[in-house]
Design goal:
With about 150 residues, the protein is an all-alpha fold. It has a single domain, classed as Four Helix Bundle (Hemerythrin (Met), subunit A) (Up-down Bundle). It has helices at about 5-35, 40-70, 75-95, 105-115, 120-125, 140-145. Helix 2 packs antiparallel against helix 3. Residues about 130-145 have low confidence and may be disordered.
Length: about 150
């Protein structure tokens, strides 16, 4: 079993939470755009497009959460894209809804995740460039294992 740090586990959990948030937002916006607005209204079209954006973010965030959890090398780049897109979608949602408060907490969470992903230890763990402690060989081990020259 591969060792996963607490920070990468938190990123996986945060990505799944972001996916759940996007899923609820997508359902609400798609229902609003298709059921609760007048036919061919601009508000309905904007709600449908925003709902489609959140629906795409839902699938991407679930996939990135899986990548974080299993330690896939593509999860670092995917996480950057998903969390940056989440910030953009939340800004769009706050412009549409007219209230900034509802998009504040998810945006703060995405910014924190983006900043945390830039740490060298997290980047190296997710990109697979980190050497495990049991994979490293100390200098004394190699000296003991070498045979003397004859």
């Amino acid at each position: 079993m591969r060792h996963r740090s607490f920070g990468v586990t938190a990123l996986a959990f945060g990505s799944i939470m972001a996916a759940l948030y996007c899923q609820v937002a997508a359902i609400a916006l798609l229902l609003t755009g298709s059921v609760f607005t007048a036919a061919s209204s601009m508000d309905g079209a904007v709600a449908l497009v925003t709902g489609a954006i959140f629906l795409g973010l839902t699938a991407a965030a679930y996939l990135v959460g899986f990548g974080f959890w299993t330690g896939k090398h593509w999860s670092w780049a995917g996480g950057l894209v998903v969390f940056a897109a989440l910030i953009g979608a939340n800004v769009l949602l706050s412009i549409i809804s007219g209230t900034f408060v509802s998009a504040l907490l998810p945006s703060i969470g995405a910014v924190v995740a983006l900043v945390y992903m830039q740490r060298p230890s997290v980047r190296s763990e997710l990109l697979g460039t980190q050497q495990g402690k049991d994979a490293s060989v100390s200098v004394t081990d190699t000296m003991d294992a070498a045979e003397p020259a004859r």
